[in-house]
Inverse folding.
């Protein structure tokens, strides 16, 4: 059977702000229903806590250290093997509605049969968006109120497809600015939301310097309890807006009868600080509020319903799992792991460790610029490379030129007690440092045997840059034109 694929991607959605991930009163009934009817990955980590690098990793199933996209505006060519091109070549009708943050813009018509690309940034230009923590009601008829519109476009695309389809809706919500229309803006009382402990209690001297620079540049000294409470309440409203639209999508599948032949993936590209450590938005750091993402897959025949994968998994594993579920061969360029067989058996072992990477290739900006105020983490916030590894309950973040972090997530789930310099943690620190080095050295490792399948994939990306990948190599320089014969055994 040729299954359809619907992907639903809200931007900057924290996993812990969904009911199925433990939020006590968010009320995300439709997303929670997906989790009940599918499999929920409870410890899935994105490969970068920034939009484009994360989406590139997801779609190509490769790590940041290989694809090289490290900032919000990064894009790849459509010739790089990826989920969308793979399905299009298999005969799928493809549609994308919302933000791109993925492919080169002039190449969008090459992969999408139908699309409406729209990215609102940080709602720049809205007169009420003054601070990074600003929250306000979005006028119902405002140009930026697009969440329901994107939902209807996605429904129209699915209803109008006469062959298997890939429909991908990329919502702006709940990405800042913290804004949404009524009734969502008024849905949660700011006086009743929980302000994170770390909003008040954090040790700047034991955190990366980039945190304090971002706090200063975003004027968080002026952010009151009332301000952050309003931001959190509005963020929750944005999530409910998305949840209602998820309900509309599921209802449309049922109405047309395509729910019985459509695989649904719900996932977010990364999380949101939302007051943690007295910061909002995101930056190249690796706290769980930024790197642990919601990921839910619903199979049309009901298998995996109600199951939860507690093991560590990575965002790059989602596309191989989807492709195998759809019966489509997984390109050898992809390094993620398919869990379809393990999901079918009811025993997903996951991975020993997960990694995440971020930060532009320049020194960390360590001194706040006097008088410089920005309402989003623009330059210099995103400078300074770093990598994170989690193994078991331990998480280590190493930065090229910034203060490193080590947390025991079992004892310190909110990552408030940095143990990196503690002598009693020397052994685990050294173990994770070596493991992170090995993991980052191995980002190009592909177990495909000695011979590369060059007939279908002319560029052997075990040796060449991923973005050299192309079906026509006649114009590419710097690659071997002949192969050394393999000696017979």
């Amino acid at each position: 059977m040729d299954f359809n694929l619907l992907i639903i991607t809200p931007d900057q959605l924290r996993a812990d702000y969904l009911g199925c991930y433990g939020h006590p009163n968010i009320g995300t009934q439709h997303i929670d229903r997906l989790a009940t009817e599918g499999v929920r990955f409870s410890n899935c980590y994105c490969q970068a806590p920034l939009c484009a690098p994360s989406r590139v990793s997801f779609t190509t199933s490769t790590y940041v250290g290989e694809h090289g996209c490290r900032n919000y505006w990064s894009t790849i060519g459509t010739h790089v093997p990826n989920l969308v091109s793979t399905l299009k070549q298999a005969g799928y009708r493809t549609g994308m509605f919302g933000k791109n943050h993925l492919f080169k813009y002039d190449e969008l018509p090459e992969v999408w049969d139908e699309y409406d690309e729209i990215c609102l940034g940080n709602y720049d230009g809205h007169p009420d968006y003054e601070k990074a923590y600003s929250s306000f009601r979005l006028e119902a008829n405002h140009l930026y109120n697009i969440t329901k519109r994107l939902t209807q476009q996605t429904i129209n695309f699915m209803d109008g497809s006469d062959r298997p389809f890939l429909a991908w809706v990329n919502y702006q919500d709940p990405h800042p600015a913290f804004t949404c229309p009524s009734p969502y803006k008024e849905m949660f009382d700011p006086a009743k939301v929980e302000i994170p402990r770390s909003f008040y209690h954090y040790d700047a001297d034991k955190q990366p310097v980039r945190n304090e620079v971002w706090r200063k540049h975003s004027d968080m000294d002026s952010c009151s309890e009332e301000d952050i409470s309003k931001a959190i309440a509005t963020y929750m409203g944005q999530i409910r807006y998305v949840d209602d639209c998820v309900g509309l999508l599921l209802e449309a599948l049922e109405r047309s009868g395509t729910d019985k032949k459509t695989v649904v993936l719900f996932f977010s590209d990364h999380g949101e600080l939302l007051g943690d450590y007295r910061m909002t938005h995101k930056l190249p750091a690796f706290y769980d509020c930024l790197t642990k993402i919601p990921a839910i897959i619903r199979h049309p025949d009901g298998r995996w319903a109600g199951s939860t994968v507690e093991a560590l998994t990575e965002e790059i594993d989602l596309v191989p799992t989807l492709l195998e579920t759809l019966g489509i061969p997984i390109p050898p360029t992809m390094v993620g792991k398919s869990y379809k067989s393990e999901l079918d058996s009811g025993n997903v072992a996951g991975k020993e460790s997960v990694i995440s990477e971020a930060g532009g290739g320049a020194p960390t900006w360590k001194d706040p610029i006097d008088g410089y105020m920005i309402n989003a983490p623009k330059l210099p916030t995103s400078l300074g490379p770093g990598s994170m590894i989690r193994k078991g309950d331990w998480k280590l973040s190493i930065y090229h030129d910034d203060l490193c972090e080590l947390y025991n997530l079992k004892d310190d789930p909110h990552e408030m007690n940095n143990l990196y310099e503690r002598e009693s943690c020397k052994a685990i620190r050294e173990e994770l440092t070596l493991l992170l080095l090995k993991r980052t050295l191995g980002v190009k490792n592909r177990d495909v045997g000695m011979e590369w399948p060059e007939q279908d994939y002319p560029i052997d990306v075990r040796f060449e840059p991923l973005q050299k990948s192309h079906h026509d190599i006649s114009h590419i320089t710097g690659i071997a034109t002949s192969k050394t014969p393999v000696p017979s055994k």
Observations:
- The CA atoms of residues 157 and 480 lie 43 Å apart.
- The radius of gyration is 22 Å.
- DSSP finds twelve helices and 15 strands in the chain.
- The longest strand covers residues 4-10.
